[in-house]
Amino acid sequence: MSDSPVIDGLFGAAAPASVVDVLLPLALDKAYSYRVPAGLSLASGDLVTVPLGTRETIGVVWDRDPGAPAGSGGNLKAVSARHDWPPLSPHLRRFVDWIAAYTLAPKGMVARMAIRDPESAGPEKPRYGVRLTGNHPAKLTDARSRVILAAQGGFAFPKSDLARLAGVSTGVIDALVDAEVMEAVPLPPEAVAPSPDAGFAVTELNDGQAAAAESLGHAVRERRFSVTLLEGITGSGKTEVYFEAVADALRAGRQVMILMPEIALTAQFLARFEKRFGVRPAEWHSGVASNRKDRLWRAIAAGEAKVIVGARSALFLPFAALGLIIVDEEHEQAYKQEDGVHYHARDMAVVRGRIEGCPVVLASATPSVESRVNAESGRYQHIRLPERFGGRKLPQLSAIDLKAHPTRPGSWISQPLKEAVAAALAAGDQALLFLNRRGYAPLTLCRHCGHRWQCPDCSAWLVEHRFRRSLVCHHCGHIERTPQRCEACGAENSLTVCGPGVERLAEEAAVTFPGVRAIVLSSDFPGGTERLRRELDAVAAGEFQLIIGTQLVAKGHNFPGLALVGVIDADVGLTSGDPRAAERTFQLLQQVTGRAGRGDVAGRGLVQTHDPDHPVIKAILSGDAERFYAEEIAMRRAARLPPFGRLAGIVISGPDKAEAEAHARALAQTGLQLLDRPEQAEARWEGLSLLGPAEAPIALIRGRHRLRLLARGPRDADLQGFLRSMLANGPKERRGIRVGIDIDPMSFI
């Protein structure tokens, strides 16, 4: 979405006392009317329990259509109860209405993201700590002495905190509890959202940063809607700049929402925030326990939680006084919600900022083409940070032409890259080998008969994960043990692999650089988020010399000792038919090479490629980002692709291939007939076209056959109006057929 218009109009009128409309968090586009029982007072935004069929469900009182008949509600079911939870504000309800209208998602499914079920979480798990009893241990070791000394004063400590303070393992503390030298005692609930101190540790900024911070602070102090693109090269201190805008919002008593694409991996960011403001911000993402989320939800609605750092779901939190929205790494594709309600968090953040009347900051070293176009056209303010903080230099980048320096069969590291890595390691520096492919190899086959292992539920090949001894589908999650014999010809030990993944690269690195402490960073290893946080912290602390990683290492991490980045296959993202392939490859390579040289050592990046003259590769190597953006924007304009045109993906899926195909053809025929009508000009459908149906590139996912239509047209066309009419007049969904709409699609598989 390029300029995010907002639906205008007044909020709905207050509901009559006898009847209210309740929006349920289900796939429903309209609210249901319920009778208000005597003695119960309700207002728009209240959370209530209502009967639905044979069960009861939670819902929210919605703004009633002013034209709806009042009535007594005598023939309606009655509201069962009102919950003592903060109501959804008019701004948040308007936001839900806007997203439903824009994305064509059922309003109830959008509201579901903004509603908390008061009875879902239960009581928060009690916390326990330990304190001294006054007894003396029969045996006093050095470790026990340190614990006793650290625990003086009669205070109770969380066991892990005391162990860290004394420099011992928690087993030492357990032994002191068993010896009755210490005792377990309940601790008060942990503060859900301690207040940050705007003046705690003010960062000394350079002149460029100070000017940028003042501009952002001025926008916050004005308390008006605006959008600013904060574009700064990697290591330029964008975070420190927008922290000062956060401080201005805190001084004004306002709340701040900071969106991040991978919130569960941002331990470094949380530590930097704590260093600046004295406390960590409140977190909102899938890794936060449900009962803690309930406490935090209340604190946000009451205005007590001042700064929330969250994933895209944080957009739907009930802020009482939102004064600033920041979208960090705004170019990241992870901001696009691909399941359920299809929306882009960056664009919806702009919408929420306009509804709330607060400034929005979009920060990135490699902005999206959409944001750059909006900045160049004047819709967004544009602030640039062209230099690295502290006078550090950008890494020196060069290409390794694989035509001139081919790798040996079964090897993926060229000789020049091997020599550069060896030199960096010999100097005591860290090196990173980057390959954006998970697993051991992208394709596994039988060397005797050529059989390929395919997912039973998807039209996709299984990827070998040798560390897990499994074949995995990266689309549906299907997993099976790596077989010992071919299922087609029966040959034993005949499996062979084609191409590298990070696991295979790590195997080669272990042979090439023996004795070096190395680590593989990939999102699909066991251990989840906490393991990744620990490993990223260990890399930042210099505990590993060689890092082998996928795209998660490119997401804003700061590795001070990293001197060399080697990109194994720079061409991997340039061969797809995705219209954003060049932009994504440019952003990814710019980000990952930008990890080098952020500390005291000079940085260097080597890019292995078969096509060093490709415009994307040349732009990366030359550092001429402006030329890349100019060429990419010109191409988009000529092809009328976003942001100069509009797209909508329509995916028809079903368990039976023939029925899905028939439904897709009938729906396409309906759309074409609508576009042929003479009244299309009045409906603002001029210039719209409908392509397809065609099988999706991944034609089968989770046992459902998939076909795609693509609607496209000029920016001012009423794309949503056309799609609504097509769905209303087209065939009805039945026999397991589903139709999904994706406005402004980011994925075309």
Question: What is the gist of this entry?
Answer:
The chain is of the alpha/beta class. Helix content is 30%, strand content 22%. A hairpin with a 5-residue loop joins β14 and β15.
Task: Give an account of the 3D structure.
Helix content is 30%, strand content 22%. The chain has 19 helices and 32 strands. The protein has a 7-stranded parallel sheet with strand order 11-12-10-13-16-9-17, with helices on both faces. The longest helix has 20 residues. The protein is globular, with a radius of gyration of 28 Å.
List the helices and strands and how they pair.
Layout lengths: L18 E5 L8 E4 L11 E6 L2 E8 L18 E2 L7 H14 L3 H6 L14 E6 L9 H9 L6 E2 H8 L3 H9 L3 E6 L19 H16 L3 E7 L5 H14 L3 E5 L7 H11 L4 E3 L5 H12 L5 E4 L11 E7 L7 E2 L5 E2 H12 L2 E6 L4 H8 L4 E5 L10 E6 L13 H12 L3 E5 L8 E4 L16 E3 L4 E3 L6 E3 L13 E4 L3 H11 L5 E4 L6 H13 L5 E4 L12 E6 L13 H13 L10 E6 L5 H8 L2 H15 L6 E9 L2 H20 L12 E13 L2 E10 L5 H11 L8 E6 L6
Parallel strand pairs: 9-16, 9-17, 10-12, 10-13, 11-12, 13-16, 18-28, 19-26, 19-27, 25-26, 27-28
Antiparallel strand pairs: 1-2, 1-4, 3-4, 3-5, 6-7, 6-8, 14-15, 20-24, 21-22, 22-23, 29-31, 29-32, 30-31
Q: Which characteristics define this entry?
A:
749 residues; alpha/beta; seven-stranded parallel beta sheet; six-stranded parallel beta sheet; 19 helices; 30% helix; disordered N terminus
